[in-house]
Design goal:
Elements: H1 4-19, H2 46-49, E1 64-68, H3 73-87, E2 91-95, H4 98-108, E3 117-121, H5 125-130, H6 148-153, E4 155-156, E5 159-160, E6 162-168, E7 171-175, H7 186-196, E8 204-205, H8 215-224, E9 230-233, E10 237-243, H9 248-262, H10 271-279, E11 285-288, H11 293-299, E12 303-306, E13 319-327, H12 334-345, H13 348-357, E14 361-362, H14 365-371, H15 375-384, E15 388-389, H16 400-411, H17 417-432
Parallel strand pairs: 1-2, 1-3, 8-11, 13-15
Antiparallel strand pairs: 3-13, 4-5, 6-13, 6-14, 7-11, 7-12, 9-10
Helix pairs in contact: 1-15, 8-9, 16-17
């Protein structure tokens, strides 16, 4: 196992965010998505209400179908009008919950019912390529405006399959009315909660995942002692036969999590409950990602963000994810879809608008420059510098369920760390083998 390569990739990406002031569920990629039908299409932009333009042969141009979550539908529609005016191609934007996106793409795209373009996470890319869904993308000169780690995350066997727009990982939020100085260690964190005493109801809000478990938010404990998902070599890539969930370091980190739960520092909460206690001012610390920034600002509570604390002297290495715009091989207009991404999404104006609508770590370098020296995104970048990119291979789909369920069992006190992580590794191995 060579984890140095993963750490170096993470460090390069995160340091770019720090220097330039970068920025629930089975996983942020929507592995627990349902197969419900897509949400209704949003109102079409004015430019698409007119009859479609026609070619010289009189044939109407097929609309460019784009699936996006509710944060980005309006932005895409704004750039749709000039695109349609320039090319004659109408755009239809369908808003779908991000957690449902992956399942719907996998089931509907091969049947010809999917989009031309869709937004997805980088750990989907292996599955999308294996299923023949994701089309290669040539960014040309636009690639120079993107961080190298974000491009690497969406690349398989030397081929890029999506236009990255954001990177993300969890970090430590804290209530600035309750905490003067953010803790550098877990020991300092628990001591701060001890000092607050009856003024708090919960010390450190970390989602347990409700009924399904949450491998993503709890992974920093697995990794703190050196745990990992799959072994990695720069020459051969991920080794799915080298599963690091039952390694000594992984077990030690999960034992520390179990102790914090048993001592009352981490409650048996789902993410909504943990977040609400933080907003209510009775939970001083909360672990989550940049997707919480807008709602925390809207709440009016006093908060800031800091790097994740060390655990028993070891850094907590969160998962790092990258999001991007994919082009579907099953779409009607792959060439036109690429033109839209290159000329209307990969621009300074659109990338900044995407960041402002849903603040995450920008991968577009001019956006990094535009947001300036932001201490919150510096905290996310510092945590990400220690992180591990989620493996972008199809076998990662076999990890979320077993790992999340076993971590939930540990937090519920129904199984010890050694048993849980041994079972998680065995279950992942069996699932990969088709058992």
């Amino acid at each position: 196992m060579n984890r140095l390569h993963l750490r170096l990739l993470a460090l390069v990406g995160a340091l770019v965010m720090v220097v330039a002031a970068c920025g629930g569920d089975a996983g942020p990629g929507g592995d627990d998505g349902t197969t419900a039908a897509p949400a209704a299409t949003t109102a079409a932009p004015a430019a698409t209400t007119a009859a479609p333009a026609t070619t010289t042969s009189g044939a109407a141009l097929a609309p460019l179908a784009i699936w996006a979550d509710d944060k980005f539908g309006a932005i895409i529609e704004q750039v749709a009008a000039p695109f349609t005016e320039e090319t004659g191609v109408p755009i239809e934007v369908t808003v779908i919950d991000f957690e449902d996106m992956r399942e719907q793409i996998v089931t509907q795209a091969p049947a010809g019912q999917g989009p031309d373009i869709f937004i997805g996470a980088h750990d989907w890319v292996g599955e999308m390529v294996a299923n023949g869904i994701a089309a290669p993308i040539d960014l040309g000169g636009a690639a120079a405006n993107l961080t190298e780690p974000s491009l690497n995350a969406l690349t398989v066997d030397g081929t890029l399959y999506a236009l990255p727009y954001a990177a993300e990982n969890v970090t430590l939020y804290y209530n600035t009315d309750l905490v003067d100085t953010p803790p550098a260690t877990v020991e300092e964190l628990t001591a701060a909660c001890d000092a607050l005493g009856d003024a708090i109801e919960n010390c450190w809000g970390i989602t347990g995942g409700g009924t399904a478990g949450d491998a993503y938010h709890n992974f920093s404990f697995v990794s703190a002692g050196g745990g990992y998902i799959f072994g990695f070599s720069p020459e051969t890539g991920f080794d799915v036969e080298d599963i690091g969930l039952d390694s000594e370091g992984a077990i030690a980190g999960v034992e520390a999590l179990a102790t914090l739960v048993a001592e009352g520092y981490i409650g048996p909460l789902d993410d909504d409950a943990a977040k609400q206690l933080f907003i209510d001012g009775v939970e001083p610390f909360y672990l989550s990602g940049p997707w919480q920034i807008n709602s925390l600002n809207e709440s009016g509570m006093p908060w800031s963000a800091a790097p994740l604390p060390t655990l028993d002297g070891n850094v907590m290495a969160p998962f790092i994810g990258v999001r991007g715009f994919y082009i579907s091989q099953f779409g009607a207009n792959p060439a036109i879809a690429q033109e839209f991404l290159l000329n209307f999404i990969a621009t300074d104006e659109t990338m900044l608008a995407l960041h402002e609508a849903d603040p995450r770590g920008p991968t577009w370098i001019p956006t990094l420059d535009a947001i300036g020296d932001d201490p919150v995104f510096s905290a996310f970048g510092a945590s990400g510098a220690n992180g591990q990119f989620m493996p972008n291979i199809p076998e990662m789909g076999s990890v979320w369920g077993p790992l999340g369920d076993q971590l939930l069992a540990v937090r519920q006190g129904s199984v010890d760390a050694t048993t849980a992580m041994t079972q998680a590794a065995e279950q992942v191995q069996t699932a990969i083998a088709g058992g």
